[in-house]
């Protein structure tokens, strides 16, 4: 039977050929009848059990509480290998065959094989990373800015003539120069010189400081290339200065990034920024799905993909806003996105969730025709209408700042399921275009309105407990014929629970991962639990994205087929769902939730 030992699943896939043979040589086979107790609480542990066939239940002997359900290729009792004795009961629920590996042999593998040891010693986050493929594009994302990817900066005095500057660019084959003038640094590009000479007809004896741009955007040497990429997209530029502390050391060009970044996401960003019509913008937007799939297939970590997509989606919506709303309104209102887009947690396009905040005195009726046009533009870009009509073409989501503030106060007073839903939708506003201060004031008002509202926050947190965690009575993964709804079972409880805690603590950050970090800083979560909670959420996102891509990029699909996952990924999923279960227990205790 030893030839049936499965070395294809973690952690045994990390063993060398010699170590595998040692396992086979030292492993016995044990048979247990249905209902037979394999391990008792307090029993000294001398072996690790690996299930070949059957089902084993882990339970608390006195309280009869079920902890977990183990089946083929699962291992138990791992804790006992280190503690020396068993804490719980392990009972065969059906006829069960197990490989029995002596504890001493297991501990020898732990000592001799670092990867094998890491699988048991590290938490969910580390195990998830160990199970994930690492590919070359991930290395780019984590590459830092250094002398190998920047070009030296040629610095010239601001009184240098246009002719001399042009000659320097030609002679040294440069795209740009750094200009010093009145104690400041500025950027001068070949395009600046061309426009100055041809369009403004400046004489070639004019000093270059008249054409240089002195609102210099800079990054620090040692920062990530990815962050420089985000900066270029956000500021609509093609190069940034590189500093070491306060000293200017070079320039990072878009072309240098593109030479290393094979997915050309920056090219997509530039296409968005340069689009002159909604048709050109739609052509750029149509490639977002391919970009996501390319990044995912190349092993880029999901939080980086989400950050990049959030920035590109923001650029798309800002451009659509500029097309839809006349310039005279741009400083009199603010466009904000809500929900997963507001949290920066949307990857593939889902439905629209947005609203407008108008300055007091601006009539909503005057704005609605342009808002209707904006909603049609978003639909053209691939964002379907929101089933709940949380969109700017719905007058319910277009109000002046004062009117929004009054609605918030009303929802807090009402304290009903409907008002909870409205507060939840509005609790994560992310500014897109217009006048940002309007959104900031709205968010400040919302946080002030819910502060100290213990009953409201308790009922708000209770929403995280609405959906059953998809675990069986025995602690294994449970799914229907349609699959496992990963949003209801995993993502929503974490997002809603963390949202409630963030509102209670007055946290202004929208992203769930960042909220978890800040809640940990405030002592609400222990660091280990916070790491596992974050890793569980990332795993849920990852599994959902894989299923959505397999279904042609359907961003609305929430079902995953857990039965088709490899054994080690099902193990991670089960572990993550138990983390969700623990979060729910914490929420019940923290907010004193009763009678659910």
From TrEMBL:
<dbReference type="InterPro" id="IPR046342">
    <property type="entry name" value="CBS_dom_sf"/>
</dbReference>
<dbReference type="Pfam" id="PF00571">
    <property type="entry name" value="CBS"/>
</dbReference>
<dbReference type="Pfam" id="PF10335">
    <property type="entry name" value="DUF294_C"/>
</dbReference>
<dbReference type="InterPro" id="IPR018490">
    <property type="entry name" value="cNMP-bd_dom_sf"/>
</dbReference>
<dbReference type="Pfam" id="PF00027">
    <property type="entry name" value="cNMP_binding"/>
</dbReference>
<dbReference type="InterPro" id="IPR006669">
    <property type="entry name" value="MgtE_transporter"/>
</dbReference>
<dbReference type="Pfam" id="PF03445">
    <property type="entry name" value="DUF294"/>
</dbReference>
<dbReference type="InterPro" id="IPR014710">
    <property type="entry name" value="RmlC-like_jellyroll"/>
</dbReference>
<dbReference type="InterPro" id="IPR000644">
    <property type="entry name" value="CBS_dom"/>
</dbReference>
<dbReference type="InterPro" id="IPR005105">
    <property type="entry name" value="GlnD_Uridyltrans_N"/>
</dbReference>
<protein>
    <submittedName>
        <fullName>Cyclic nucleotide-binding/CBS domain-containing protein</fullName>
    </submittedName>
</protein>
<feature type="domain" description="Cyclic nucleotide-binding">
    <location>
        <begin position="11"/>
        <end position="127"/>
    </location>
</feature>
<dbReference type="InterPro" id="IPR000595">
    <property type="entry name" value="cNMP-bd_dom"/>
</dbReference>
<dbReference type="InterPro" id="IPR018821">
    <property type="entry name" value="DUF294_put_nucleoTrafse_sb-bd"/>
</dbReference>
């Amino acid at each position: 039977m030893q030839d049936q030992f499965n070395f294809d699943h973690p952690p045994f896939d990390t063993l060398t050929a010699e170590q595998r043979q040692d396992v086979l040589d030292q492993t016995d086979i044990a048979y247990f009848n249905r209902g037979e107790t394999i391990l008792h609480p307090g029993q000294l542990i001398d072996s690790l059990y690996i299930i070949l066939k059957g089902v084993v239940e882990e339970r608390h002997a006195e309280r009869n509480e079920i902890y977990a359900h183990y089946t083929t290729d699962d291992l138990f009792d791992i804790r006992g290998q280190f503690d020396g004795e068993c804490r719980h009961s392990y009972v065969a629920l059906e006829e069960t065959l197990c490989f029995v590996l002596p504890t001493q042999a297991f501990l020898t593998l732990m000592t001799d094989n670092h990867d094998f040891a890491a699988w048991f010693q590290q938490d969910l986050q580390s195990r998830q990373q160990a199970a994930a493929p690492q590919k070359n594009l991930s290395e780019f994302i984590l590459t830092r800015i250094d002398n190998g990817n920047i070009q030296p900066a040629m610095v010239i005095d601001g009184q240098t003539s246009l002719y001399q500057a042009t000659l320097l660019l030609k002679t040294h084959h440069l795209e740009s120069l750094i200009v010093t003038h009145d104690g400041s640094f500025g950027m001068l590009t070949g395009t600046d010189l061309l426009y100055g000479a041809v369009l403004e007809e400046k004489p070639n004896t004019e000093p270059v400081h008249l054409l240089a741009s002195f609102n210099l955007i800079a990054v620090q040497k040692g920062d990530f290339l990815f962050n420089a990429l985000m900066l270029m997209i956000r500021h609509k530029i093609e190069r940034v200065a590189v500093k070491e502390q306060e000293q200017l050391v070079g320039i990072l060009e878009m072309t240098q990034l593109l030479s290393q970044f094979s997915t050309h996401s920056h090219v997509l960003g530039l296409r968005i920024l340069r689009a002159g019509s909604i048709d050109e913008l739609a052509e750029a937007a149509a490639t977002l799905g391919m970009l996501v799939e390319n990044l995912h297939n190349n092993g880029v970590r999901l939080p980086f993909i989400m950050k990049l997509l959030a920035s590109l989606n923001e650029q798309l919506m800002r451009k659509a806003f500029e097309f839809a709303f006349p310039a005279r309104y741009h400083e009199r209102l603010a466009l904000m996105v809500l929900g997963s887009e507001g949290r920066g947690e949307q990857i593939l396009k889902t439905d629209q969730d947005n609203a407008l905040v108008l300055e007091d005195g601006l009539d909503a009726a005057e704005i609605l025709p342009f808002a209707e046009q904006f909603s049609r533009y978003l639909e053209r870009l691939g964002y379907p209408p929101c089933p709940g009509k949380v969109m700017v073409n719905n007058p319910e989501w277009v109000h002046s700042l004062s009117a929004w503030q009054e609605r918030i106060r009303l929802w807090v007073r009402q304290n009903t399921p409907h008002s909870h839903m409205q507060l939840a939708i509005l609790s994560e506003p992310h500014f897109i275009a217009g006048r940002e201060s309007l959104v900031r004031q709205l968010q400040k008002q919302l946080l002030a309105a819910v502060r100290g509202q213990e009953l409201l926050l308790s009922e708000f947190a209770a929403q995280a407990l609405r959906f059953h965690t998809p675990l069986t009575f025995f602690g294994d993964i449970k799914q229907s014929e349609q699959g496992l709804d990963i949003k209801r079972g995993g993502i929503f409880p974490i997002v809603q629970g963390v949202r409630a805690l963030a509102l209670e603590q007055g946290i202004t950050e929208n992203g769930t991962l960042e909220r978890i970090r800040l809640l940990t800083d405030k002592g609400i979560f222990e660091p280990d639990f916070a790491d596992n909670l974050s890793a569980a959420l990332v795993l849920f996102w990852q599994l959902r994205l894989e299923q959505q891509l397999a279904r042609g990029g359907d961003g609305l699909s929430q079902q995953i087929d857990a039965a088709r996952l490899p054994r080690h990924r099902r193990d991670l999923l089960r572990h993550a769902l138990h983390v969700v279960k623990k979060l729910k227990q914490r929420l019940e205790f923290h907010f004193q939730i009763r009678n659910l």
